[in-house]
Design goal:
Layout (H helix, E strand, L loop, with lengths): L2 E5 L3 H12 L3 E5 L6 H14 L10 E4 L12 E4 L5 H14 L6 E3 L6 H5 L8 E6 L8 E5 L6 H13 L3 E5 L8 H17 L5 H16 L4 H8 L1 H11 L11 H8 L16 H18 L8
Helix pairs in contact: 1-2
C-alpha cells in the first residue's frame, strides 16, 4: 500500500488526506495540536463518507505531532497544507529539505504564494512544486500542478500521475505566475462581478444567479474555450469587440468589497457580508453547497 505524507491538518489537509485514503493509500499526517486530533479524524471521516468510501479507511491515517517523527522515507509524496503564511511555509520547507529523501516530490498547497518564493532557498528545490487544491478539496476534482522556476519536470510528472491515479483532474501550469491558472481566470470574473454590484447594474443575488444558471451552468459540460469553439469562435470575436471596452480593468480591488471587509462584514464567519448570515442559514447553505458538489461528481466521469 502506498503512503503519502501531509503537513498540516486544517480543513484542506483533512480533505486532502481523505482523497488519498479513499484511493487506497495510507496517510501519515503531521498536526502539532494533539488536543485537536479527534476533531481532525472526525473531519476526515465526514469527507470519506461524502466520497462514498468504504467504512474503516480512516484507520489508515496516522497522526504525528512532530515533523521529525514522520515516516518520510516510506512515502511516495509529501503535501504541505500549512496555514497561508509565507514565513511559515518557508520555514517548513527548510526542514522538509533536510528530512525528506531527495527522490520524493514535495508539493505545496499554497494558493497565493509561488513555490519559487517558498522553496527557492532549498538545496533540493528541484523536486518542489505547487500542488494547489480547491476547497472543499475532496469534492472539487481539479488540482493544479505548478512548475516553479527551479522545478524539474519529473517532480511535476510524479505529482500529476499521483493525482490522476487518485481520480482527480490534474492541471499542468507551466510557470508559477501569481494566482497560477484557475485563480487568474476566476479573479478576472470576480473583478467584473464586484464591479457590476458597485455600479448598481445588479445585486449580489442576481450576479450569483447569472453565473450559476447562465454561462456557469454550461461550464460543468465544457470549459470556456471548448464552449466557445462549439458555438463558433467568430461569435466570441464579435461579442468581445462590443463588450471588452466597457469591462472593468482597474488594478485595485472593488471599493464595495473593501468597504465590507473594513466593516468586518466577511460573510458567515462574522454573520454578515453582502447578505445576513445567521448561523442556521450558514450551516444550511454549506450543507447544500457540498451536497450539490457531491451530486455533480458522476457528471464529470464522461470525458471522451
Amino acid at each position: 500500500m502506498k503512503q503519502a505524507a501531509i503537513i498540516g491538518m486544517g480543513l484542506m489537509g483533512c480533505d486532502i488526506a481523505a482523497i488519498f485514503l479513499a484511493g487506497g493509500w495510507r496517510v501519515a499526517a503531521q498536526e502539532p495540536a494533539e488536543a485537536d486530533w479527534p476533531a481532525k479524524r472526525a473531519r476526515v471521516r465526514t469527507a470519506l463518507e461524502q466520497l462514498g468510501a468504504e467504512p474503516g479507511l480512516e484507520a489508515n491515517l496516522a497522526l504525528h505531532a512532530a515533523l521529525e517523527d514522520m515516516p518520510f522515507a516510506g512515502c511516495a509524496c509529501v503535501v504541505e497544507a500549512a496555514p497561508e503564511r509565507l514565513d511559515l511555509k518557508r520555514a517548513l520547507f527548510s526542514r522538509l529539505d533536510a528530512l525528506v529523501p531527495p527522490e520524493i516530490p514535495i508539493g505545496s498547497n499554497a494558493s497565493g504564494f509561488r513555490i519559487t518564493d517558498i522553496a527557492g532557498h532549498c538545496a533540493t528545490r528541484r523536486r518542489m512544486a505547487n500542488l494547489h487544491f480547491f476547497l472543499p478539496a475532496h469534492l472539487v476534482p481539479g488540482v493544479e500542478v505548478v512548475k516553479g522556476e527551479h522545478t524539474d519536470p519529473w517532480a511535476c510528472d510524479a505529482l500529476y500521475d499521483i493525482m490522476a491515479g487518485l481520480g482527480g483532474m490534474p492541471i499542468r501550469v507551466a510557470r508559477d505566475e501569481p494566482g497560477f491558472l484557475a485563480n487568474r481566470i476566476q479573479h478576472a470574473l470576480m473583478r467584473e462581478a464586484f464591479s457590476c454590484i458597485d455600479s448598481g447594474l445588479a445585486s449580489a443575488e442576481d450576479v450569483d444567479r447569472a453565473v450559476r444558471y447562465c454561462f456557469g451552468f454550461r461550464y460543468l459540460a465544457a470549459g470556456p474555450i471548448l464552449q466557445k469553439e462549439l458555438a463558433g469562435l467568430e461569435t466570441q470575436l464579435a461579442a468581445a469587440a462590443t463588450i471588452y471596452p466597457s469591462l472593468n480593468t482597474s488594478p485595485d480591488p472593488s471599493p464595495g468589497l473593501a468597504q465590507l471587509v473594513a466593516g468586518n462584514r466577511l460573510g458567515p464567519k462574522t454573520g454578515r457580508g453582502y447578505r445576513d448570515w445567521p448561523p442556521e442559514r450558514a450551516a444550511e447553505e454549506r450543507a447544500r453547497y457540498e451536497r450539490v458538489l457531491k451530486a455533480a461528481q458522476p457528471l464529470l466521469r464522461d470525458e471522451v
